[in-house]
């Protein structure tokens, strides 16, 4: 009985570690927690017919992260037996995790479809790499990663459909990027006010 409680506690702790940042990101940048300006921006986008509702989006986001947290903990348990393989798998998992939770801040925070497309394109191979590393230690952990892989695959298709359906938004992002680059290129040539008065 004590062993079962200890196992439950460990799984609960693992879920907390994985879910806490995901929940914070969701409630800070998620589709249901956007400010009025961001909400207007999102509503103005042309969307494919299969775009999920805000409620379904949030539910699937949390569900896949919960399952992924269990998979990560199962691999963590192998640290004592297969230290090198477990460290390698958890390192890839961590990089993938950071990329994953960055999606909402970039999409809803920066309102940048292009950058979101690049990010999710980098995330997919990291997911498959993670699954390969997990498979070396536990087939179950690999299977538990499948819902998250499917969810991100769906989001990848959705993101690139949004890019295709919103060329005006992409043009605006390009103008914003060019403006920032031009501004940064002019800065080194600018003279401080005191020096410019002395010259």
List keywords for this structure.
199 residues, disordered C terminus, mainly alpha, elongated, single chain
Question: How does this model look, in words?
Answer:
The chain is mostly helical and 199 residues long. 81% of the residues lie in helices and 0% in strands. The chain has nine helices and no strands. It has helices spanning 2-29, 36-44, 54-76, 83-101, 103-109, 113-135, 139-165, 167-186, 193-198. 23% of the residues are buried. The model is unreliable at 194-199 (pLDDT under 50).
Summarize the structure.
The protein has helices spanning 2-29, 36-44, 54-76, 83-101, 103-109, 113-135, 139-165, 167-186, 193-198.
Q: What is the total tally of β strands?
A: 0
User: Quaternary state, please?
Assistant: single chain
DSSP summary: helix tally: 9
The shape is: elongated
Category from helices, strands and their pairing: mainly alpha
Strand composition percent: under 5%
Gyration radius, rounded: 21 Å
Main beta sheet, described? none
Low-pLDDT segments, ≥5 res? 194-199
Q: How much helicity do the residues have? A: over 70%
Order of helices and strands: HHHHHHHHH
